Amino acid sequence: MDSAMANRPFYSVEKFQARRSIGYLIKRLNNLIVPGAEALFADAEFTFSQWVVLMAVRDGIADTCGELARHLDHDSGATTRLVDQLEKRGYLRRRRSTEDRRVVHLRITATGRALAKSLMPRVIDFWNEALEEFSPAEAQQLIALLTRLLARIEARTLETRKQARAAK
Amino acid sequence: MDSAMANRPFYSVEKFQARRSIGYLIKRLNNLIVPGAEALFADAEFTFSQWVVLMAVRDGIADTCGELARHLDHDSGATTRLVDQLEKRGYLRRRRSTEDRRVVHLRITATGRALAKSLMPRVIDFWNEALEEFSPAEAQQLIALLTRLLARIEARTLETRKQARAAK
DNA sequence: GACAGATAACTGCTCAGGCAGATATTGCTG
DNA sequence: CAGCAATATCTGCCTGAGCAGTTATCTGTC
Hints:
Two copies of one chain form a homodimer. Chain A is mainly α. Chain A has six helices and two strands; from the N terminus they run ααααββαα. Helices cover 62% and strands 6% of the residues of chain A. In chain A, a hairpin with a 7-residue loop joins strand 1 and strand 2. Chains A and B meet through helix 1, helix 2, helix 5 and helix 6 of A and helix 1, helix 2, helix 5 and helix 6 of B. The first copy, chain A, binds a DNA duplex through helix 4.
């Protein structure tokens, strides 16, 4: 569980192979998972992004549009439109904050909660099937490694953006 | 290295948390990696997708448009246009096959090879920095786990598509 | 308390990428 | 060898998402 010490570089120009590149693997996984998940929601006409937003609000990961956009590394404009749709269909509700009148708080409605609950088993089954040949320890490890990598790349991204802003 | 035996389900409806979901982690990583990589190529006006295509052709992962689309789990129409751009800029070349006149073979040009070579160090550095706190064993493990998961989900996707086609 | 700078949400513009259909070619089957 | 299904590529269309700019609000400074 403890993080390792600094090492010499993992990749090198000579030995690099696309197939063993994490970026390649993640891109392909994403390209498969998104439509795969959307197929699960086909009868509800639900997008994977919409699902993620609904779950993020339900689980209290994000309370406002901005937080949502930051937590999902998503454009804030696109997030606004995503929330528009979910609100129009009655799964979320917007409420202007009283403390800071710029922000709009998001809350899942009873309908939204019911929908999330009814779709959840499909998602669970999808992932359990995908992980069928993984031991619990391996699944845990995969999640832990991805989480660490995410934190690392997130920090790097913030750093880069800060530099870009300072350059202006 | 050996794969584990069948287990009871890893996820359950009660304990599911978005933050611990592999789909969520992969989506976020993808959302960070794609623009991050594109920033590396900014001066070459290169897309991450274009980079992946160029590398796939260079490394012989794919020889034709169709293979490319399959290997990257990408739309074939979009792939055509990607190749259009890379060809127009002189990085790839199309050549109609003589054995099967439907297929168009792809080959990287000297210019394309030179570009790939010149950009490679940036990509290597990006990933080595991202993996700085991972031991070589951990990095290997992450790649191995992602590869297994990819194979699994890929098989499932093919199965699903076959069923969908049979239903017609 | 006026002004500057930051932040939240939203809107118009543009474009990559997915979907469905068109065309050319091949292979299979009777 | 006629006909039909499958395959490879390409094209038109449309949606989703990123970018830049707008408005409203807040915070900090002098």
